[in-house]
Amino acid sequence: MNPEALQNLVKKCLEDFYKRRIGNLSNLQLKQVLKRKNPYLLRAIGLRTAAELVEFLLQMHTQASDETIFGETFVEPIALAISGGHKSSAKGIDLEIDAGTQYKAIAVKSGPNVFNSSQTARMNDEFQELYNRLRQHLSQLGKQFDPVLGCAYGKRVSPPTTRRRYRIVSGKAFWEELTGDPEFYLELVRLMQDYPEQQKQAYQQEWAKAVNRFTRDLLNEFANAEGELDWEKIVRFNSGA
Question: Could you give the angle at the alpha carbon of 214 between the alpha carbons of 209 and 218, nearest 5°?
Answer without folding.
Answer: 155
